[in-house]
Amino acid sequence: MTPKHADLAEQFITDEPRTNWHDETLWFVREKRDKAVHGIPEWEDLREWGSQIKNHSLSNLSQYLKEFEEKATANGIQIHWAATGEEHNQIIHKIIQKNNIQRIVKSKSMLTEECHLNDYLEHRGIEVVDSDLGERIVQFRKEAPSHIVLPAIHLKKQDVSETFHEHLNTEKGNNDPQYLTEAARGHLRDKFVESELSITGVNFAIAETGGFVVCTNEGNADMGAHSAAVHIACMGFEKIIPKAEHLAVFLRLLARSATGQPITTFSSHFQKPRDGQEMHIVIVDNGRSTQLGREDFRNSLKCIRCAACFNTCPVYRRSGGHSYHTSTAGPIGSILNPNLDMKANSDLPFASTLCGSCTNVCPVKINIHEQLWKWRQEIVKNGYVDTTKKIGMNGMAVLFSYPAIYRLTGKIGRWVMRVVPFITNNQLNPWYKQREMPKPPKESFRDWYKKNGNSQKN
Ligand code: SF4
Which residue range or ranges hold the 4Fe-4S ferredoxin-type domain (predicted)? Predict the structure, then answer.
């Protein structure tokens, strides 16, 4: 059975200093985003354009994907279509086998995480080296990335130092970031030089040209793609944009929303294979068509994976990415994952305060908190809500339907909390576990109003 978000979050917050540090670090990124955004007077126009371009692309997907395939094929790129994650993995495995390849480097691609590509290949005796620094760190630790932009954000430099000591033989206890980065750099350089095949993600695929763009801050996608004889780029079909000129909108939105930078350090444009190189693009559905057909959730496919919604979410910041038990965590993950498996991920839309901060920062204007609320309704309708929650909600429905019962329960509740507080203040009460119980008032607001309402008016 899939562990639940609430249980995993409970484990995460047992380490209070780490929880506070995680919260503050991500809030720092959110503040950087705000400063970067406030420097752009046309920011709201950019958001609107980004949203409209994505809307238009989603409404004309088949046309643009066909155009992209034609142009890319004419450029010498081989296009593959995968209906599922399994098919995506099989296609990549076949390319590896056909070329008899042993050494593979991969830059950050949330799609390959979604399809569990590394595990798939590992079970077939093929090792893939993740070349993004954060991803390499979590790969050494046999963990999943906890954030889509900052995969190792849950780790402190002391954790990285220990991991590198174990796997790269660095000096024990040396936590100097410069020293650790240099060790990683040397290690990854060797992997790039040896690599025969490079796998990258795709941030934007341009129908008009058949080219695609990969954004990284470390240049690792370029290093891999430029040294390997075979380059495979993996993309969900929603990455398509109609024209090259639209990149101007998205590249400005992406980096500022993600890390508060004016531009990602490397925005690499790939158009065709270089002489003697093979270039493949695997275009994946894996549930996206279903999501496109769900009117209330279609908008989620506009996501450009900037993670601004993660950094601002009070639940994500305090519960850590692994508590979402899926490859894409945070608010947008809680919308995308129930589409893939509603039962296993039925807890995720409830991992939100519905405060709307995610919607406010989203660069492509996805109505994230409204979709989370809609998912809750879908999940209840489909019977995937927890029995305890179901009983509680049914009880509340009765309570709110009968004013006399509501008043009586309130009176009993106030008396219990005042006279025998241990009945509510104990570890069996999930509300009490991480909170102080409020002091009960002597009377209800209704009773107070009855006594004082008229005199206040006069
Ligand atoms: S939903 Fe919006 S804010 Fe969240 S990752 Fe996607 S584009 Fe960024």
Answer: 293-323
Residues 157 and 272 grouped into a single domain: yes
Same domain, yes or no: 319 and 345:
yes
CA 311 to centroid of ligand 1, rounded, Å: 10
| pLDDT above 80 (res 79) | yes
For the chain, report the end-to-end CA distance as a whole number of angstroms. Answer: 62
CATH code, domain with 44: 3.40.50.10420
Band the pLDDT of 458: cuts 50, 70, 90.
Answer: low
Helices assigned H by DSSP within 115-176: 117-122, 133-140, 157-168
Residue nearest ligand 1's atom 4 by CA: 309
Which of the residue ranges 107-116, 249-258, 263-272, 418-427 would you say has the lowest mean pLDDT?
A: 418-427
Mutate which of 33, 306, 335, 339 to test ligand 1's pocket (most atoms within 8 Å of Cβ)?
306
User: Which candidate, 3, 17, 29, places its Cα nearest to that of 258?
Assistant: 29
Domain count, the chain: 3
Do residues 269 and 364 both lie within one domain? no
This prediction has a pTM of 0.91
For ligand 1, is residue 308 a contact (CB within 6 Å)? yes
For ligand 1, pick from 297, 309, 371 the residue to mutate: most ligand atoms within 8 Å of CB.
309
pLDDT at position 200: 98
Which structural domain range is residue 351 located in?
308-382
SS3 call for 191:
helix
**Nearest CA-CA partner of 188 in 167, 159, 209:** 167
**Helices (H), ranges, 286-367:** 288-293, 308-312, 314-319, 330-340, 357-361
Other C-beta atoms lying within 10 Å of the C-beta of residue 45: 11
**Residues 355, 412 within the same domain:** no
Q: Is the CB of 309 under 6 A from ligand 1?
A: yes
Separation CA 196–CA 215 (nearest Å): 22
Burial of 231 (C-beta count, 10 Å sphere; 0-12/13-18/19+): buried
- 37 close to ligand 1 (CB < 6 Angstrom): no
Asked whether 149 lines ligand 1 (CB < 6 A), one says no
Nearest CA to ligand 1 atom 7: 303
Q: Are 80 and 115 in a shared domain?
A: yes
- Name which residue leads in pLDDT, 360 or 387: 360
> Per residue in 168-200, pLDDT tens?
999 999 999 999 999 999 999 999 999 999 999
Region for 79 from its dihedrals, namely left if φ exceeds 0, alpha if ψ lies in -120 to 50, beta otherwise: beta
